[in-house]
Write a structure and sequence with these properties.
OB fold (Dihydrolipoamide Acetyltransferase, E2P), four-stranded antiparallel beta sheet, 14 strands, alpha+beta, six-stranded antiparallel barrel, 327 residues, Elongation Factor Tu (Ef-tu), domain 3
């Protein structure tokens, strides 16, 4: 009678304990089901010059951090500098030619013509006065008709001379070129100015600066080497170009959307990094060669990409394994 009494309390203790342990394991399994493995990846900026040339100076080394606008490298610039000087000289020549066409004669010539206009005006005033007097005398009968005709002829002559002098002065103050010549000269000035701007742009492209704050990931040329036009001289990795790639099963991808927050952790990270989903692949990475049965659907995984916060992106390194926790 005593043995059953001892076993009953033991059962009452073990069964609840086993139930709690099973629930604990199931709870842990639910928690770890939201962790997915992935890796960090970087989108590198390949920095190059548009034209070929010898690498004259490189101010940065591999592994160095640079700020936005910092000088990176410079190619030889003698040819571009000579081209800029030539374009500047052509522009000054075109501007001088245009100025010569739109302006009149020299100041001394204009002054001489103005003095001639003044003399002609004085002579016309004198002849006008003499003609008036001769008309008065002729009306009173003091002079003959011949004297009146002489006065009228002198007045007409002086009036024509004054008009001619004024016309020469107007011609001297006007531009010496015709309208089409002036238009062509102005077009030449604009073309020369555009050529100067182009040569200046080519000169500035020989020295390349960092487009953004970044890490110099690698350099491909050393000073003195010949660089082909358009070939990258170095690669940069801005923190904003670091992303996380991981894979989720088919049963989970339907619940994800772009912009969802998640946490990224790695072995060398001092803290978890916040990130947001930026891309969800529409195709499975691994597709079974047979019909999708319920068991085979578990083999489907989909690529998901997330962009970490800019403040913590530098904690991640391309190729580094990470664990992603969906929140």
């Amino acid at each position: 009678m005593t043995t059953p009494l001892r076993i009953r309390p033991l059962r009452q203790v073990l069964i609840p304990a086993l139930l709690c342990f099973v629930l604990f394991l199931s709870g842990c399994r639910d928690k770890t089901a939201h962790l997915y493995q992935g890796y960090a990846e970087g989108e590198y900026l390949l920095v190059a010059a548009p034209n070929a040339g010898r690498l004259e100076k490189r101010w940065v080394q591999r592994g160095q951090s640079v700020e936005a606008g910092a000088p990176l490298f410079a190619l030889e610039r003698e040819n571009e500098q000579a081209g800029q000087r030539e374009a500047g000289a052509r522009l000054r020549t075109a501007e001088a030619r245009l100025a010569n066409l739109v302006t009149g004669r020299r100041a001394s010539e204009i002054d001489a013509l103005a003095a001639e206009v003044a003399r002609a005006g004085t002579a016309l005033e004198l002849s006008t006065l003499q003609l008036r007097r001769q008309k008065e005398l002729f009306a009173k009968g003091y002079i003959a008709r011949t004297d009146l005709d002489v006065a009228q002829t002198a007045h007409s002559r002086d009036r024509e001379l004054a008009a001619e002098a004024a016309a020469r002065l107007r011609t001297a103050t006007e531009s010496i070129g015709r309208d089409k010549e002036i238009a062509a000269a102005r077009a030449e000035v604009e073309a020369s100015r555009a050529a100067l701007e182009q040569s200046s742009w080519k000169l500035t492209q020989r020295a390349v600066h960092a487009p953004a704050a970044a890490l110099v990931h690698d350099t491909f040329y050393t000073e003195g080497e010949w660089v082909q036009g358009g070939f990258p001289v170095m690669s940069l990795l801005p923190p904003a170009n670091i992303k996380v790639r991981f894979f989720v099963p088919e049963a989970v991808v339907g619940s994800l959307k772009v912009g969802r927050a998640l946490m990224v952790s790695c072995d060398g990270c001092s803290k978890a990094v916040r990130a947001k989903i930026s891309f969800i692949s529409g195709q499975a990475e691994y597709t079974p060669p047979v019909i999708y049965s319920r068991d085979q659907r578990t083999r489907l995984v989909f690529l998901v990409e997330a962009m970490p916060d800019a403040a913590d992106a530098a904690l991640l390194h391309p190729g580094q394994p990470v664990d992603v926790e969906l929140k």
